[in-house]
Amino acid sequence: MAKSSKYTSKQPNEQGVIEWSDEENKIWSELVARQLKCIEGKACDEYMEGLEKINLPHDRIPQLHEINAVLERETGWQVAPVPALIDFDEFFRLLANKQFPVATFIRSREEFDYLQEPDIFHEIFGHCAMLTNPAFAEFTHKYGQLGYAAEKKDRVYLARLYWFTVEFGLMQTDNGLRIYGGGILSSPGETQYVYSDKPEINKLEVQDVLRTPYRIDIMQPLYYTISSIDDLFDISQMDIMSLVQRAKELGLFEPKFPPKNKLAS
Predict the structure, then answer these.
(1) What is the DSSP string of 196-262?
(2) Which spans in the chain are helix H?
(3) At 176, is the secondary structure helix, strand, or coil?
(4) Are 1 and 50 in contact (CB under 8 A)?
(5) How far is CA 88 from the centre of its chain?
(6) What 8-state DSSP symbol labels residue 194?
(7) Of 63, 67, 78, 123, which is most buried by a Cβ count within 10 Å?
(8) pTM surpassing 0.85?
(9) What CA–CA distances, in Å, run from 192 to 126, 178, 200?
(10) End-to-end distance of the chain based on CA atoms, in angstroms?
């Protein structure tokens, strides 16, 4: 998680304002317009309601205090500016304190379609609307507390739970399959791919998720679905660390993807 990045996060000035260039605001504007079209009829209701509450500007990158005012009112959360990449320790510490890390840079035009590391568009457009939902917010908070207290070798298992829920979570609703994971909601390619016949989609069982390997640089071969956002609240009340211990005993499932070649790792 603390690998190097070619991007540098922008620092807020004394007033807490980040100065974005016209080109950066234009990239934001184009990303938002494209993705709003893409998620129509695919994002879950909770996300769309959250998006309405946050009321994102379409013509410029929002300032963090604008997002904070809404999150504070709805669930007591805040967003916190961070460098382009942070380590697990800092990541869990922030979540445990109801602070969602936001890398304050936006992708270049060359990486408009796909960016491996999370930028401000991914963090704010992908995640912040869901953080207005109490069940989702509680799950994320509890997850941060668990992760912050966990040993390093257990954090790898916890990372899988976050990956298959907060980042790439799906929900099976009365109206069909809906997306709540920010990694899908901020990616046009992944949004379309989820609805193709390519990925395998299974009902979420925490024990299974903890044993499922993933790669961050490919379309996911497997997703897990919940049936309601309240399922996340229920998971947050489980003894997750005992499930982690059991997952360690059982071992990982066979990966559903080819290994990265050694040069790329």
Answers:
(1) SSSSEEEE--HHHHHT----TTS--SEEEEESSTHHHHHHHTS-HHHHHHHHHHH-PPPPSSPPPPT
(2) 22-38, 45-54, 64-75, 88-96, 120-121, 134-149, 152-162, 182-185, 188-194, 206-210, 230-236, 240-250
(3) strand
(4) no
(5) 14
(6) H
(7) 67
(8) yes
(9) 15, 12, 14
(10) 13
Scanning the structure block, which residue is given the tokens 């507390």?
145
The angle subtended at Cα 8 by Cα 5 and Cα 12, nearest 5°, is 145
Asked if residue 18 lies in contact with residue 11, where contact means CB atoms within 8 angstroms, the answer is yes
Instruction: In whole angstroms, give the CA distance from residue 55 to residue 82.
Output: 23
Pairing status of strand 99-103 against strand 170-173 = unpaired
| Chain centroid, CA 11 distance in Å | 22
CB burial of residue 193 (10 Å; 0-12, 13-18, 19+): middle
Helix (H, G, I), strand (E, B) or coil at 195: coil
Amino acid at 243: L
What is the C-alpha to C-alpha distance for residues 168 and 145, in angstroms, rounded to an integer? 21
Among the listed residues 43, 64, 41, the one whose alpha carbon sits nearest the alpha carbon of residue 54: 64
Q: What is the pLDDT along the chain (265 residues), one digit of tens a residue?
A: 445 788 999 999 999 899 999 999 999 999 999 999 999 999 999 999 999 999 999 999 999 999 999 999 999 999 999 988 899 999 999 999 999 999 999 999 999 988 888 999 999 999 999 999 999 999 999 999 999 999 999 999 999 999 999 999 999 999 999 999 999 999 999 999 999 999 999 999 999 999 999 999 899 999 999 999 999 999 999 999 999 999 999 999 999 998 877 444 4
Which DSSP symbol is given to 175?
Answer: T
